[in-house]
Fold this protein.
Amino acid sequence: MSPADWDPVRELAVIQERMNKLFETALARTNFDADGGVGAWTPVADVFESAGRLDLRVELPGLEQSDIDLRVEGDEIVVQGERKMDREQAGEQFHRVERSYGKFARRFPLPSTVDRDSVEAVYRDGVLEISLQKKAGSGPGPIRVAIR
């Protein structure tokens, strides 16, 4: 590369990108604060809506049903618990730990169209399925408001 082709701003951007990847990789494998801070485990979820219901699916592999706390708090569904590391023998030496462990908490806001009292949940094959019925008459269409 000739001195005329050198772009210091581009070089700084490349260095910044490399540093960001380095920190993301390091922090993803470290649980500094199991109560929800940097490096805490966050299970993935899908939230979808159909004509009469709102459904959530949260992946919680390796947990027993008794390890999961599910609540409706105000206008939110709260899923929390802890995935503990199984240690077979004292003094084990790990060569690689890629799975995440520790406490987790996920909060999902509930739209005003759902009936909070209709929540149902099933846990099977490592997936927590949560379902809420929509309130009667809460259609997706617009509502015309009279102006006085």
